[in-house]
Amino acid sequence: MRGVARRVAGAVALTGCMAGCVAACAATGTASVTVGATVGATVGATAAGTAGATGEPREASPPGTPSVAPSVAPSGAPLAAPPVVVPALSPAPARGVHAEAAHSVVRVRGFASACDRRLEATGFVYAPERVLLNAHAVGGVDRDLKVVLDDGRRFGASVVAFDPRADAAVVRVPGLRARPLPPARAVRTTAVIVGYRNGERSPIALPATVRANMPAETYDIYNRVPVWRRVHRFQGADIGKGMSGAPLLTGEGRVMGMVFAKDTNKAGIGYALAAGEFAPVARAGRKATRAVPHGHC
């Protein structure tokens, strides 16, 4: 299927680094994202990113993908094609979703000795004693890896699955009894993001609108290797440092995606990995018990 693509500078990772790092704590500065808004497609439950699926079909791929440069808004972001989403849910109060999800959305903290930085991000429980989060949030962390609940309880954790290309990782948290968040059956326009912003001790709920479900060319967490991912472009949520790994939820509290970047050129615009992008890592980490190497900072 033909796509429309343009490189968008200004998408940055949202790991909260206590030493002031922004983009994945790698010396990369600003990452760039090429957003491809597919035209004339109807995306149903499977293609739209049902969590736990075996992977999403891609409507664009790196080699030989026909593309043209679209019109560009003053902000530098592309003027998207008609949103590729399914009909919206009836709006649900963010407060209600927050109440249901708060105990399952956690803060992940750790220290990366090689770059002398403390990292802080959001993650969410998706299986018993397993938390899913962005790989850039734990890359190089070698000390004090902890998962902190909304009530302040802390648990030791270890990385059992790690994929720098997908920007997804799983940490094992022995003794964690939080309820796993269920997968979404389809992408909805009405969304809520629950996460820990700017070092806050309690999770916040941010209403958002999913504007498009699209293929995007980004980079691995070290900003070196180009990769294609399906992402959800959302609007209206004032996300900040520490929100990497926050779940993008339906009004029913089901996981549609995982926040990984924001647009620094236009306020209120962010990007979440579609569920099919992190499904392989989630499957690998579900039963894994041994710690695995997890890159560098």
Question: Can you give me a brief rundown of this structure?
Answer:
This protein has 297 residues and is mainly beta.
Write structural notes for this entry.
The protein has two domains: 5-91 and 182-277, Beta Barrel (Thrombin, subunit H), CATH 2.40.10.10; 104-180 and 282-286, Trypsin-like serine proteases (Thrombin, subunit H). The termini are far apart. The longest helix has 12 residues, at 275-286. It has two helices and 16 strands. By secondary structure, the protein is mainly beta. The strands form two sheets. Strands 1, 3, 11, 12, 13, 14, 15 and 16 form an eight-stranded antiparallel β-sheet that branches. Strands 2, 4, 5, 6, 7, 8, 9 and 10 form an eight-stranded antiparallel β-sheet that branches. A hairpin with a 5-residue loop joins strand 7 and strand 8 (154-156).
Number of domains: 2
Helix content: under 10%
CATH architecture of the largest domain: Beta Barrel
CATH-defined topology of the largest domain: Thrombin, subunit H
Q: Determine the number of helices (DSSP H or I, runs of at least 4 residues).
A: 2
Class by alpha and beta content:
mainly beta
Net shape: globular
Total beta strand runs: 16
CATH class of the largest domain: Mainly Beta
Indicate the radius of gyration in whole angstroms.
17 Å
**Separation, N- and C-terminal Cα atoms:** 37 Å
**Could you name the CATH homologous superfamily of the largest domain?**
Trypsin-like serine proteases
Largest sheet: 8 strands, antiparallel
Kindly report the oligomeric state of this protein.
Answer: single chain
Kindly estimate the percentage of residues that lie in beta strands according to DSSP.
35-45%
Order of helices and strands: EEEHEEEEEEEEEEEEEH
The residue-averaged pLDDT reads: 75
